[in-house]
């Protein structure tokens, strides 16, 4: 479906980490603006360092999907150590920001096995200087997380962005 929010798991059935539900509003997502997200994830395995994430980001250009390059850590990037990135954003020992704290959702590695759910929560999307190629339009993202040779999770998202 084009121009609407959609998601699916894309790993094989053996992936230990599975997105159970995800909803995002408004649709299209407005930047700046408020984003309401609810989600549930189940993990059959502790996710520990080094966690690698590979993103493939595509934007619709007419009927074509163009893969966006990785520029300034945005776009189709490979992040070889997600745990270190999280530690840089939120120094270890600091409490996780809301609403993660309230719902017991960790923001640092290791992520223990179990079920995590985030009831509908509002996040402010600030005015950010996005490159022009990352503004209005329809997007597809494939995110795969692995630890060494094993793929732990794979999720595909489709969404529309509208910048003010």
From TrEMBL:
MF (Gene Ontology): enzyme activator activity; lipid transporter activity
InterPro entries the UniProt entry points to: GM2-AP (IPR028996), GM2-AP_sf (IPR036846), ML_dom (IPR003172)
Gene Ontology cellular component terms for the protein in this record: cytoplasmic side of plasma membrane
Stretches assigned to the MD-2-related lipid-recognition domain: 7-159
This protein's UniProt keywords: Signal
Signal listed as a keyword: yes
Pfam families named among the record's database cross-references: E1_DerP2_DerF2 (PF02221)
GO biological process: ganglioside catabolic process
Superkingdom field: Eukaryota
PANTHER family according to UniProt: GANGLIOSIDE GM2 ACTIVATOR, GM2 GANGLIOSIDE ACTIVATOR PROTEIN
Protein name: SAP3 protein
């Amino acid at each position: 479906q084009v121009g609407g929010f959609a998601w699916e798991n894309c790993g094989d059935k053996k992936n230990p980490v599975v997105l159970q539900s995800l909803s995002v509003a408004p649709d299209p997502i407005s930047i700046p603006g408020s984003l309401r997200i609810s989600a549930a994830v189940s993990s059959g395995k502790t996710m520990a360092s080094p966690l690698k994430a590979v993103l493939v980001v595509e934007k619709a250009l007419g009927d074509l999907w163009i893969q966006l390059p990785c520029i300034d850590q945005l776009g189709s990037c490979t992040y070889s150590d997600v745990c270190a990135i999280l530690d840089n954003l939120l120094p270890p020992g600091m409490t996780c920001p809301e609403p993660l704290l309230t719902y017991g959702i960790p923001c640092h590695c290791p992520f223990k096995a179990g079920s995590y759910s985030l009831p509908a929560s509002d996040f402010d999307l600030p005015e950010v200087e996005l490159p022009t190629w990352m503004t209005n339009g329809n997007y597809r993202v494939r995110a795969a997380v692995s630890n060494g040779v094993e793929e732990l999770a794979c999720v595909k998202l489709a969404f529309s962005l509208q910048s003010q």
